[in-house]
Amino acid sequence: MDLSDISDFVNQANNEIGKFQFTMTLSPTKLTFDSFNVPSLAWESIKYGKDEIDKVPGDKRGVYAFSIHHPSQVLPPHGHILYIGIAGRKSDRSLKARYADYLNPRIVLKRERIARMIGTWHEVLRFHFAPIDDSMTSEQLEQLEKDLNTALLPPFSEGDLEADTKKKRRAFR
User: Fold this and answer.
1) What's the predicted TM-score (pTM) here?
2) Would you say 68 and 125 are in contact if contact means Cβ atoms under 8 Å apart?
3) CB atoms within 10 A of CB 70
4) Residue 67: beta bridge partners?
5) Can you give the residue range of the structural domain that contains 54?
6) Under 8 Å CB-to-CB from 153, ≥6 apart: which residues?
7) What does the pLDDT look like over 122-160, one tens digit per residue?
8) How many domains does the chain have?
9) 166 inside domain
10) CATH code, 48
11) Is 56 a member of any domain?
12) Of 154, 156, 149, which is closest to residue 164 (Cα–Cα)?
């Protein structure tokens, strides 16, 4: 039995569709959570890559996210948050310095999920960032990260969730 046509089809389908699949969880209850430890955040974003790195603050800590987003004149507004993190975990490390890590292949390859995220969607990946006030403590920043990750449950964020949600999420992995 010659299975080469079937194998060719499966390989083509995987290259065109399969490798881009991931599980997305959007809980209305978690999404509408509104007890964050900040009144608001001033989010900005840049296209992933080195071209716009100077738009990222080099003197501010903060929270950041990666999303799949491609503006279009035809498609409706859309996007998928893939990952949320912070810059300045128990340090004064800036958003710009943290973003630079994601542009360094040696650093990225040490984190397999992040390597998949960047390697797969780099052409349509955006880096969102929100500087925080200098008076916010590292503990408050870490709590903000947990709250945002718990609210959005990004597929490439694994560790920084509220403990109860993390435990329940593992039941589906």
Assistant:
1) 0.92
2) yes
3) 13
4) 81, 126
5) 42-170
6) 25, 26, 27, 30, 161, 165, 169
7) 999 999 999 999 999 999 999 999 999 999 999 999 878
8) 1
9) yes
10) 3.40.1440.10
11) yes
12) 149
